[in-house]
Design goal:
heterodimer, A: 452 residues, alpha+beta, MetI-like fold, 2 domains, six-stranded antiparallel beta sheet, 12 strands, B: 286 residues, mainly alpha, 83% helix
Chain lengths: 452, 286
Amino acid sequence: MTAASATAPSPTVADRLPAIERLFARKRLFSFGVPGVILAYLLYVFFAFDVPGLIQRANMDNARILVADSYSHKTHVTQDTRSGQIRVAIEGEAKGVYPEHLLPDWVAIDGPSAEIDLGRGQSARIDNGAVFLTVPGYGVIEARSTRNGVSVNIPDGPNRPTVNQSDARLVVDLDGARMIVTRTRIDVFRYFLGWELFWFSLESPYYGKSLSELIGLALSDQRVDAAKSNLQGMAESFWRNRIWQHGDVAWALFETILMAFIGTFGAALIALPLAFLSAHNFTPSLIARFGLRRVFDFLRGVDGLIWTIVLSRAFGPGPMTGALAILLTDTGSFGKMFSEALENTDKKQVEGIRSTGANAVQRYRFGVIPQVMPVFMSQVLYYFESNTRSATIIGAIVGGGIGLLLTQAIITQKDWEQVAYYIVLIVLMVMLMDSFSGWLRRKLIKGTDTGH
Amino acid sequence: MAKLYMPAQSGIYTAYMAQTQRRRLYSGILLLVFVLLLISSFQIAESRNAGGFISGLPQILDFPAGLVSEAWERIDRMPGHLATFFPSLVETINIAAASTLIGAAGGIVLALLSTRGLALWPRLIPLFRRTMDILRALPEIVIALVLIFILGGGPVPAMIAIALHTAGALGKLFSEVAENADLKPVEGLASVGAGWFQRMWLGVMPQVSPNFLSYGLLRFEINIRASAILGFVGAGGIGYDLRNTMTWGQGRFDQAAAIFILLFVTIVVVDQISSHYRNKISAVEH
């Protein structure tokens, strides 16, 4: 019982009941009202964003292509029916065309005709502008590509594959394979699991070798290329892979981290002296303080997006523009946070240093910096990690770093395995920066009891 | 007295001074290396940029000046532009708000499932932690661009993308808060036979909700900026309008100026409101 209730007569339960009931009613209203309001808002958003219409418009074919392409690749066998020439190419790309002596074992080419094994008993035979597709349990689909159109012979029967047919185009979907016949070409392709040519592209002497063969080569003295050791050759071959461009991708990742690094630490270096000028216990001038604070607010409020646009008009696209945009925004954030930290410093240490006859610089160096440094470092490192992510987005706008590669790969709408590769790399990069900055933070702040 | 201690003291003194000097040298070298690293990185970035730093510096004000002069010439149209772009602004704010709400809900679930002592399936804690790490590491733009390919442009891809990232980011912070929650109410509820959901809703949430709310407000500030940026890569809202006016170039700068004003005012106002309430929440706590 408190002292107050000892002097006043303590109220009975009956006296308190109305108040308690009011409290309960309020709590009940609150605990049902808040979720209700949130739900109502989400319902409003649901219709404001036209989610029902979106579900109808959603292109699930795209989703299927995307998912299938991200973990598998296809190899095309294509005949140009005007010249009769047949080529075998990964993803149908010029960069992935198989040279004649390296043809995969499921394709046999003989002049203008080819035998193609499509797996699971399915096979196709291309014969100078005509194609015969054998499907087990069904029969043979015959198609002929001529200048006037595509003539087909599709027998009825059980297990008929999905066929999409018009005068000028025939598409047959098989199990793990597909055939497209148009007026000018016959295109048969087969899906395979995995990212083909990820390690070495076709022109590399190390293409098509198994891991044990590669290890054997790396250890042997017999050089594939006399000019350099096998290990070096492999590394160079991998680095210059023409399809996956590992070297360029690594550069792009480096560029993204570079943007975040310059932006974050440059901003910290600029904000540090400015923060002293805008903290009331270090700068008595009200005008300077007020002016600087508004500058910080302005830098933060304008936001990275607008800075990016303004700066890319002056400096053109590239990583420096992105770095400067991050730098400007973060100067505002750091200035505000640093000056708040400086205002919370303990005066006693400064007074102690002053009592030994130290001048202003020495007082700051030994009385203030040791107090605020752990806080500053922790904030700067946290921002470094978060800016790695922002640099990906800003890179997509200013045209630098991995963000640019990612948007390009998505815009072409066919290299989804590369999109998947970039996404994995971005996630790994951010996680790496996260644990690195966390490690550094613990390392630098160790032994100080700042409570962070 | 002083003479007596002098030899020992001077030995310590010189050793101390030597140590201090060495430490100073090391930190000096470290600082120098850091500054050199910063300068050289800047030079690399500049060499890969279309325009140089020095040559671009005089032009830095050209665009803002053009913007202001064009906006000033047609100042009479400004209220009209502000009204035109206001619905887009509302859409941007809606993206941020909805994704913060959905993300926070996901974050709460993930946080409770990955906090020791509260988790429903203690063995699966590492799984939920990794999930949060991956969600947190995914930049919004990645999910947004992939979803735009499937769903088409508009606010929903941006909302899903930001919500996923928010769930990861808030989940980690929430889980740190929930770790410090008092377990007594939870045990009390368990003793009367409450299920996991009831224990969390009635035993944990009342303890942690002020902190959760504070983090959620901070996230809302961040998400407004994110939704504006995502609009610029095609996900609706005011960022999309901004990109359209920018690609039209000269002659539309008065519209761009209107969007800049709307965006700036919104960010500042939301920052102010949110920091006001966050201060209020932390004042109640202490």
